[in-house]
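Weekly modeling sync, notes
Attendees: S.R. (lead), two postdocs, one rotation student

Agenda item 3: backlog of single-chain predictions. S.R. asked that every request posted to the team notebook include the full sequence so nobody has to chase files. The rotation student volunteered to paste the first one in as an example of the format we agreed on. Action items at the bottom.

Example entry:
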Amino acid sequence: MATHSSRGDQGHILTRLEAFSDIVIGLTLSGLAFYLQVPKSVQEAVAHPAPYIAFLASFAIICSIWWMHNRLFAYFFYADALSIVLNFMLLASVVLLGVALQIFFKFADGAQSVVIYAACLGLVFGLMSVLFAKGLKDKRIVQPAEIRREGLGRARRCGIVGVVMVASLAALPYGAQTVEYCWLAALPLVTLTRMMERREAA
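Predicted structure, as returned to the notebook:
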């Protein structure tokens, strides 16, 4: 847990914020299920698996965001006014992402659905990167070098994903599929960043 100043309300605020954040993310996850329709038969479910694949992919993305949020609150979050506002913005973008994921998987070839999805995902990862970076720079939070390296790595990787998603919208004049291809750039960049982090830690 992060070492904070002696403000008596800090622990209470953190507990309340974390509980509220878990509720919002949990409701977003449960909301994904409302997009599923019970098939008329097992054969229909097997013949049209796309909604279930979309659900599982969406569930995995939201869960990964929850895990990063958990690490953020465990080590890099100080509940000042700016951090609280940024956290609320992050939660709002997560809710929007839950809707955007379903729109994207239902209308994957539509330009509008691609824009909405890329913008929401870019916003989520961008805000997560900002919150990690803010925690790293906050002198009120003292962590060992190993934990700080973890936070720096998460800030970098989230920032890369956020920038790639937003920058990919520049390719929209060339078609929605071109934008989707641009998203693939995040994978080698994040992998390369991860490898560099491991070398630095060695």
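Discussion: group reviewed the output briefly. Helices lie at 10-33, 42-47, 50-75, 81-106, 111-137, 145-167, 176-183, 186-201.
Action items: rotation student to repeat for the remaining queue; S.R. to check formatting next week.
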